[in-house]
Amino acid sequence: WAVIGALLVALALLILLTPVSTQFTDPCGSVLRPAKTQYWDGGELVFANTPPCHDARMARLPIGVVVGVAGLAVLVASLVTGRRRD
Asked: 3-class DSSP state for residue 27?
């Protein structure tokens, strides 16, 4: 069970660290490491994530969190049951 939990945590990290892409040419980065770009917003130069990149990153966040929490739960359950057997 510990191996399965570790694999789920690794999968969650992979999901959260893989760069997202949109139909625009802006580099979006990943959920944990966003790429900031300069763009004009209402006549003001802004150095941040463009709104399409932010939306694409936030769409990936729930899946990464669910997989990570499930992996941590399996890891904790395997450690607790492993100690009881000893």
From this structure: coil
